[in-house]
Structures are given as C-alpha cells and as structure tokens.
Amino acid sequence: MSSAPSSSRRAGSAKRAWRSLSARLALWYVLVIVGSFFVAAFVFALRLETSVQREGNRSAEGALERYRQALESGGTDALRAMFDCSPAPASRFALRLTDERDVELFGVSSDEDSRRVAVTSGERAPHAAPFPAWHVAKTQVSQQRTLSIAMHDDGADHLFRELRETSWLIFGAGLGLAILGATFITRRTLRPVTALAEATERIVRSGDLGLRVETRASTDELAHLSALFNRMLAKNESLVKAMRESLDNVAHDLRTPLTRLRAGAELALRGAPDTAHERDALAEVIEESDLVLGMLTTLTDIVEAEAGAMRLDKHREDLGAIAREAVDLYDLVSKEGGVGIVTHIAANAEIFADRRRITQVCANLIDNAVKYTPAGGRVEVCVLESGTSAIFRVTDTGIGIAPEDRAHVWDRLFRADRSRGARGLGLGLSLVKAVVEAHGGEVTLSSELGTGSTFEVRLPRAP
Ligand code: ADP
After folding, report:
1. 134 ligand 1 Cβ < 6 A
2. Which pLDDT tens digits describe the chain residue by residue (463 residues)?
3. pTM for the complete prediction?
4. Best of 429, 435, 436, 453 to mutate for ligand 1, by most ligand atoms within 8 A of CB?
5. How many of the other CB atoms lie within 10 Å of CB of 263?
6. Exposure winner among 274, 306, 398, 441, fewest CB in 10 A?
7. How far does the centroid of ligand 1 lie from the alpha carbon of residue 240, in Å?
8. 118 C-beta closer than 6 A to ligand 1
9. CA of 426 to the centre of ligand 1 (A)
10. From the CB of 427, is ligand 1 less than 6 Å away?
11. Exposed, middle or buried by CB within 10 Å (0-12, 13-18, 19+), for 231?
12. Over the range 75-89, which residues count as b (16 or more CB within 10 Å of their CB) and which as e?
C-alpha cells in the first residue's frame, strides 16, 4: 500500500537533489574538467600529427630523390635494379612513373592501397583520419614524366592506435575521478550553506531563537556568512527579548493606573450617593486616565520619531530661551525638593527646530535631574555653542547611574529602579533620544554612581 507514495516521494527527493545547487555545481565541474581534457588532447594530437607527418614526408622526399637520381642516371632499369638488391623502404609502398597523360610507364607497389595513394599523390593525398600514416611525394622528371611515391609509416600507425586507446582509457578514468572529485568538492564547499539552511529550518520549526550555526575557524566567505548569520540571530534574539520585556513593562505599568482607576470608580459607586466623594473619585479617575493616555501618546511619539515619521514644525529658535522656559517649569518643584537650579546660558545658540519638541527634551532632562537628586543637591543647566553645534547640558549631583544601566537608559520603559516603585514611565529618555536624532542631533550621558550625571544634547546650529 505504502510503496506508491514512498516511491513517488523518493522520486521527488531525487528530482530535488538533481536540481540542487550542489548537483548543478558538480555537473559544471565535470563539464569543465572533461572540456579541458578534450582541448588538451586535441592540441596534443594536432602537434604530434604535424611533427610525425613532417618527419614522414621528409623521408618520403629523400627516398623519391634517390629514385629520381637513379632514373635519370640509368633509366627504369636502374630503378628496377635498386628494388632487386634492397627491399622497399616501407612495408606498404608504391612508386609510379607516369607520362603527361597519366599512363604508367613504370610501377612498383606492395599492395593496392599504396598504389591508390601514389596515383592521387600531390593533388589530393588521402588522409587516413585522424592520424594519417601515409607519406606522399611527387617530382617531375625529364620529358614530362612524373615520379610519385607513397609510403605507409607502420610505426606511426601503431603509435597513433595505442595513443587512441590510451586516450579513451584516460578519459574514462578521468571522467570517473572528475565526477567523484566534483561531488566531493561541492559537498564540502557547500557544507556551511547546508548547515545554515538546517539551522534556519530548526529555528523556524522549534521557535528557539537561542540556536546558532556551527562556525569554522576559517576566514573564507562562507565562514564569514555563518558568523554574520549568527550575529543576526543574536540581534534578533535580543530584539525579541527586548520586545517581550517592553510588553511586560507596558502591561505592568498600565495595570497599576488601571487598577487604581477601577478601584476609584468602584469605591465611588459603593455606599450612599455622596456628591463630594464622587467628585474626588472622578478627579482621580481623570488623573489616572491622563497617566495612561500620556504613556500611550509618548510611546506613539517615540515610534514615530524613530521611524522618521514625526511631524516637526521647524523654525529658527533660540535654544537659550527654550532652556530658560523649561527651567522655569521646574522652579517650584525643585524648590519643594530642596534642589537648587543654576543656569549658564549663552546668547546666540540658535537652532532650526520644533520648539514644542525641544522644550519637551529640555524639560525631560531637567525633570530627571531634579527627580533623581536628593534634597540639598544641585542641578546646573548650560546652553553654549561649539563650532556647528548648539549644546544643552544638564548636570546634577544626584544618585548617578550604575555602569551596567547606562546603555539601557535610552531603552523604552527602562527604569534603573528595578522595583518600578518610583513614579515614572521609563519613556522620557527614549523620547529625548528619538526627538534629538529626528532633529539631526545626538545626546550623550556621563555618570558616576552616587556622584551625579551629565546629559548633553548637541543640535546642529541654524545656518
Ligand atoms: P523615568 O520616567 O523613569 O525617569 P526616563 O526614561 O526619563 O524614565 O529615565 C530612565 C531611567 O534612567 C530612570 O528610571 C532612572 O533610573 C535613570 N535616570 C534618568 N535620568 C537620571 C538622572 N539624572 N540621574 C539618575 N538616574 C537617572
């Protein structure tokens, strides 16, 4: 029952294997090797044939010259005498003396083939393809007579036959070796690619983002590809991890205000109607809703700014004026917290920016500085210009940021306070970075745990 589907499956996988890159590469290798063999054999045979032919023709011409001299000195009798005392110079041999009408006046031959060759010599000497062993020559002797000679080179014939047989043997063995070698080389070369494909399949199937491809201690392109693939996998893993953490944090941060919101509403509904009590509860509901809405708006703003889709209403602005405005916003809060704010604001630090967004940046940084600086501390706000940049710098004498947290403060919903007890969304610095970068600027941080932090925003100066 199962034989039909399994045989069709086998046929399918054979078809796939045949169409695979390794099969096609192996085929190309074999074709190139066989082609090279044929070209080399052809060139070799051609050169050998030419040199054997030249050598044979030379000895045919030498023999013909001797017969011509004998003919001229003693006529056909002298020729005949030559053959009487010594054998012909080749086993298959013909010598013909003909008049101008091709009537044979004298002839010596060992067989019919050599006669035929001698008859046609000169005009159309037949070639015994592919390695002609016949050598022909002809010369004009006195009174319109032609003396022609045809000699068969048995040695060359034998040599060419052996060469032909050996060539086929070499070709057969070479073809076998080429197929084996090409298959081995392509399999070996493509092993990293196969490993990549297998790893990808395993990841897709198991969903395990921690899987990696085996890498070799080599510097070739495929080893580089495997290393890059692993780096991409690691990056994907950390992105997915960050996304999961973000989602957890969002869920956590939304749960608290929503629970408070629900509890407030429930409390207001419980017991006898009391207008004052209900008003308080509704005010609290509005406050919590604003918190949730603010969080969602900030998240959307960050996503838009990071994607380059934030709408910026840019004008020529004085960064110093924006900074002063932001400092004024925190005047009361800082006094309440016992934190002093000092400012050093240079004139003419002009930028081309969205005033509302840059105010948000300055306010966020001052807010953090005041929030994370204990009573008695100091916050310094500076605006200065440096070359093509306008700089906004906030330095505080607050709690500082641990080295391991410094790289993460820009992440969405990150808070160094792991308990997430303190009020704060962990979105302020993400928004600062996204907005500053959307304006073509950069923001940097230097901090010392327990001593304080400095945040510096560099924006391009207005031209
Ligand atoms: P948050 O609303 O929690 O302040 P932010 O994105 O503004 O969110 O900041 C992220 C985290 O970076 C904060 O939770 C805090 O731990 C740390 N941080 C930011 N600014 C300062 C600062 N000036 N001093 C110390 N820690 C800071």
Report:
1. no
2. 444 455 555 555 555 555 677 788 888 888 998 889 889 988 988 898 888 888 888 888 898 999 999 888 888 888 888 888 777 778 788 898 988 888 888 888 887 777 777 776 655 444 443 446 778 888 888 778 888 888 888 888 788 888 888 888 988 998 899 889 888 888 888 887 888 888 888 888 887 888 888 777 777 787 888 888 889 888 888 888 877 777 777 777 778 778 888 887 887 777 666 777 778 878 888 888 888 888 888 888 888 888 788 889 999 999 999 999 999 999 999 999 999 999 999 988 999 999 999 999 999 999 999 999 999 999 999 999 999 999 999 999 999 999 999 999 998 888 887 554 556 778 899 999 999 999 999 999 999 999 999 999 999 999 8
3. 0.55
4. 429
5. 14
6. 274
7. 23
8. no
9. 7
10. yes
11. exposed
12. eeeebeebeeeeebe
Which of 362, 372, 412 gets mutated to test ligand 1 (max ligand atoms within 8 A of its CB)?
372
